[in-house]
Specification:
Length: 375
Amino acid sequence: MSMAGNLRKVTSLGTVGGLRRVARLARRRPRVDLSHPARSPLGSSVVNCVSYREGVRVPARGDVVETVERVRKHGDGFVWLGLHEPTAEEFADIAELFELHPLAVEDAIEAHQRPKLERYDETLFAVFKTVCYVEHEELTSTSEVVSTGEIMVFTGTDFVITVRHGRHGSLGPLREELESRPEQLAQGPAAVLHAIADHVVDDYLSVADSVHEDVDQVETAVFAEDGARVDPGRIYQLKRELLELKRAVAPLTRPLEELATRPIRVVDPEIQAYFRDVADHLLRVKEQIASFDELLNSILQAHLAQVTVAQNEDMRKITAWAALVAVPTMVCGLYGMNFEHMPELHWKFGYPLVIGVIAVACLSLYRGFRRNGWL
């Protein structure tokens, strides 16, 4: 599929149904963990090193240095080097080979960065937060819903270096998909940067769609007949996981705007139009997350109101039964006093009369409480 076809696919997502269809497709996309040693023949952290010329993959010959020298000797094409959680020692030679800025190298090794875009001379350094939905049978107060990782991308005139952190967010399927569209790869490293950004934001959609299902389940449970018994920890946990997703999505807005609007030497103006589509896609995810957050706030407030109402009902029942017990307690307390002269003390019908008065008073109170909904 060409980039124009990909653009039509993205712009067709104007409805919620379209978003959910993409989310389902994203969930069905195969996940390949390229960090496994069997898939890292070039080193403990190097996942792959491939060169492309006119959008076509060049057969691998030699190590990373030889591949880069061959590309620079011909003066066309570019190298795509993929790494997974490299150490400082493993990354040192690569940083020297590609003349990467020390600050960007430090960020790529240490990870735990906010999504951002920085320019160092002729090199772009982009940070993307990857997200993955953690499957669970039932949401609890300790359930992990969203797992995050990172992808750092160095983009130059003749190279793309991707540094991945975390056990998900593999770029293997994306690489295979791009190789099936040589006309897109022929546009250079910026096309790979766009594909990675689009891949990451598509995952945001997939996770947001799955979180939506969790929100619906919590909402249904809270507004059920026994909603006051719902553990509020489930709602708080879902809000915490939603905040984790928001931290990944929200900061990416500014980097995508820069890629879409500001002139950047390594990004062709034609490709910037596709970054605008990704930025629009990201905006929709942000709006979806904001709506989830507002809905969870309303659900939490409704749950607290239900708990308050349930507590008030319990207090009314306790008060009603206490009033019923107070009548015989009061009468028996009066007649338990040791006085000589008390009404009907020596009358043979006095005891049945007192019992009858107590029974009538308690029955009247009981009927009154039942009529008013206290019992």
